[in-house]
Specification:
220 residues; alpha/beta; Rossmann fold; 2 domains; five-stranded parallel β-sheet; two-stranded antiparallel sheet; 11 helices; 47% helix
Amino acid sequence: MARMNPDQQIKAILFDADGVIQTTHPPFLEKLAAIPLDGDSSVEEFVREVAALERSALTGAGDFAASLGELLQLHQSPMNTNNALNLLNLVNVDHGILSAIAEIRRRGVLCCLATNQQRHRAKYMSKTLGYHRLLDVEFYSCHLGIAKPDEAYFERVLDNLGLDANQVLFLDDHQVNVDAAQAVGLSASVFVISPGADNLSALRELLSQYGIEVGRTSPR
């Protein structure tokens, strides 16, 4: 784990979404497997096709919703596109993590979302879940035109923030993304939430290693 040097001050924190402030329950692949298909269709093939569609849409290419609708028709599924999208969008938000983010923002540290998403899910997260209000800036891969773990993703985020890399902390549930952020010069750590765990205490402990105290009275 890269820790903050004494002469550095973290001015912004980038939070990944899935696995860091929200969990998909059931997991994405299980949701796909639950979508009813024509009896002759292979569930495994359908899962692979949808996963491939979403991967290709993470940088903003194509229309994931339209492509999913075409795939449902191809497999003669009785589920319509909107219901399938609603199923795939369902997440459990960790409100303890969001309360910590609110406190960090009050202390003057920017809190940003840094996540790989296709456009339909990005809109759902921003508007329906309200992340556009709960965070200072949202960096969705589909809007930036590039996805993690490409180092250029983090370079574009830094350009947007107007901050030096050593002023930014990145938290993600995948080591490969953390490695890419560190290669650009960001402080970065793996952080993973799970249902039933004391995720808030884990976040507090991690942030304290970077000089950010959560849940303690601010000095007067």
